[in-house]
Amino acid sequence: MPLSRCFISLLATCFLSVQLLLVPAAHAAMVSTDSVLLQQQRADQEAVILSALQQDKAREVLARQGVSLAQVEERLQRLSHTEIQQLAERADSLPAGEGLLEVVVVVFLVLILLDLLGTTDIFPNI
Predict the structure, then answer these.
(1) How far apart are CA 67 and CA 96, in angstroms?
(2) Residues spanned by the domain of 40
(3) Is 119 part of any domain?
(4) Which residues in 12-38 are b (16+ Cβ under 10 Å) and which e?
(5) pLDDT tens, 29-87?
(6) What's CA 87's distance to the chain center, in Å?
């Protein structure tokens, strides 16, 4: 009996020693605030780009080119951070011509108001 108890304790010691030696090491590092901010900025910029592409005019152009929104999202994932940043900055100005009518109407109303007040003489018949 003492021999089997000694054998079992020796076997258990060997198994525990091997178990401790085979534990994989965790290679953890500190995550910098900059890297977290860059990831968040990229996600925000991708959301801006995708929201611009959700507009009806953009969908029509994509459909004419034969590109689906899923393909655009896939290609967005492959862009670098600077390319995403440039696209996001230009996303608001890309649909040129939108809002042009409002600007023309406001300028026209200001000119009429100035002409009525006698400041300018753009419309001589008024």
Answers:
(1) 21
(2) 31-94
(3) no
(4) eeeeeeeeeeeeeeeeeeeeeeeeeee
(5) 888 898 889 899 989 888 888 887 777 777 777 777 777 778 778 777 877 888 788 87
(6) 10
Give the residue carrying structure tokens 């670098």. 80
Question: In the block, which residue shows the tokens 């300018």?
Answer: 120
Task: Report yes or no: 122 and 115 within 8 Å, Cβ to Cβ.
Answer: yes
Q: What is the pTM of this model?
A: 0.50
> Which tokens belong to 59?
């969908």
Is 115 within the bounds of a domain? no
Residue 94 has pLDDT above 70, yes or no: no
Q: How many domains does the chain have?
A: 1
Region label for 120, one of left (φ > 0), alpha (ψ between -120 and 50) or beta (otherwise): beta
Looking at the chain, how many residues does it have? 126
Longest dimension (CA), the chain: 123
Secondary structure (3-state) at 126 = coil
Give the DSSP per-residue string, 15-78: HHHHHHHTPPPP---PPPHHHHHHHHHHHHHHHHHHHHHTSHHHHHHHHHHT--HHHHHHHHHH
Does a structural domain hold residue 99? no
Domain for residue 9, yes or no?
no
